[in-house]
Write a structure and sequence with these properties.
CATH superfamily of the largest domain: YefM-like domain
Low-confidence stretches: none
Number of strands: 3
Helix content: 40-55%
Distance between the termini: 39 Å
Oligomer: single chain
Number of helices: 4
Order of helices and strands: EHHEEHH
Number of domains: 2
Strand content: 15-25%
Amino acid sequence: MQNVSVANFSQNILAALENIIKHNEPLNVNTAAGSVVIMSDEEYRGMQETLYLLSVPGMREKLLEGKAEPLSDCVPEEEVEW
């Protein structure tokens, strides 16, 4: 994560925000009172979804099991009955 001063951020706010959105790279802006992290909406929503999934009992274990399963053992998406 990149760090910038509030003065530098305020001088380049549009470019900084566009860079955050384009690269999904959060930005830490430092002020005399403390710091703030600015992130893209996509990054924020992804983080919220991850926190939600990890809050479901047993979900973490299921995700880790799925990650460890070889792709050759998986059912192709077009064969899944929704």
